[in-house]
Amino acid sequence: MKLNIQDTFNKELPADPILRNYRRQVEEACFSYVTPRIPSKPAVIHVSEEMLEAIGLDADEAQSDTFKRVFSGAEVMPGTSPYAMCYAGHQFGHWAGQLGDGRAINLCEVVHNNTRWALQLKGAGETPYSRSADGLAVLRSSVREHLCSEAMYHLGVPTTRSLSLSLTGDEVMRDMMYDGNADYEKGAVVCRVAPSFLRFGSYQIFMAREDKKSLQVLVDYTMKYFHPHIEGRKTDDYLQFFQEVVDKTLDMVIHWQRVGFVHGVMNTDNMSILGLTIDYGPYGWLEGYDPGWTPNTTDAQGKRYRYGSQPNMALWNLMQLANALYALVDDVPALEAILKTYQQSYPRKYFSMMGEKIGIVTQGEADMKLIQELEGILQLSETDMTIFFRLLSRVNAFAMNEEDALVVVQDAFYKLDEIQGEIKIKWLGWMSKYIDRLTEMDVVNVDKVAKMNAVNPKYVLRNYMAQLAIDKANEQDYGLIDDLYQLLKKPYDEQPESEEWFAKRPEWARNKVGCSMLSCSS
Ligand code: AMP
Ligand code: MG
Known about the structure:
By secondary structure, this protein is an alpha+beta fold. It is about 40% helix and about 15% strand. The protein is built from 17 helices and eleven strands. The structure holds adenosine monophosphate and magnesium ion.
């Protein structure tokens, strides 16, 4: 395989000197060398063409035996030294100590078209960080990660990517709903790709161990490759670095809110230092607009990571990162001032994004009220978020009254017969204000439609869609994986031939496992 391999992480950062693969605490090191587990009967079942191209491979190479072997873990490429990364983290608000890549193994870094890509297998066996788990991943969660990574990229949301999805031929025992009904599932490996898989927890671990030296080496490394415009190693440079991480994280969360994505497990070990969506576990997509919704059954009680809390949780996580960087900058007010920029920018960016979703450029108090009122009304009766905003672009303020406008969006309502009485009055009231607001603007309706359609996706990876692809894949039919992958490459396009996926979640999926509720088991 013609890959332009240029490793830096395992060449420039401190390595764990122990080479034997057993579970342990790893100190003063950023990673441990580890060899992927040999799968018994590997088979590639899907490849992302874009990602293939991005790392400099062509379609033929994806068909090769070498590709299959390398990206399932059967073979280590010459000149490479695979490794698992060491990190810690806060899980659900509590310090969890060392975590690390328990089932992820980085193969190498590739540079192509001036972009650096780390290639990482997820589900390729035990590492020193596997703790009590097996280092493996099942087909179910791997299909979800592979499809969603690529779908998010095409939605314009910063994310890690996925090159390939392979079966290992091995069986993996999982108790999917943690209810004592463990069963065998098919094992799988995804090859994830990102400029770097560093997380907030990668820095936190050194703070927790009071290892300032390693912390500085890692931050300097991060700045060298991912913030090259920041020059030296002075306090101000570290502060600028932190400001940039804050800005990127905020940008990512605003995108999540825009498309209705709920990450599900925003622990600090699942927060990318590059502001990428990382670690697709029990994530989900809002169907009915509900800020209180989380797909993660493990979080069903506290709902810490519900849709409406994501912006605050990201800030909480940034605070933990600030605590770690404090060792290098020793300036609490400066770090606090940077965190404050998040708090100040968030409402502005959020309302501006929501304004775009409804086709206005938000200007003042009245626009904020219009948006807040909409958020409230959307919750009065179950209303599909994706369908509502997509249909809203069809409201033509110059040719419609509020009654017409309500008819335009009515397919978004799960129970149309609930849209009467008080609820209907509220909807009509809002539509009337909305129409007034639109007519104030000096834009041609077609321009508004195009602008709105560019921020309101028509197609997202609804939870039940991923589950249908998984059910088929379990029967060795991988067609739907590719169909969805192709569909979600153009989420903002009309694609009339795929209208079946522009539909509310079917009733059978309302309470089905994998469609509305997901556990962390993967
Ligand atoms: P998560 O919240 O899924 O990102 O995982 C939290 C921690 O558990 C990370 O350190 C993972 O590497 C580890 N982990 C999750 N699943 C497994 C598994 N099957 N085997 C080993 N480690 C795992
Ligand atoms: Mg994780």
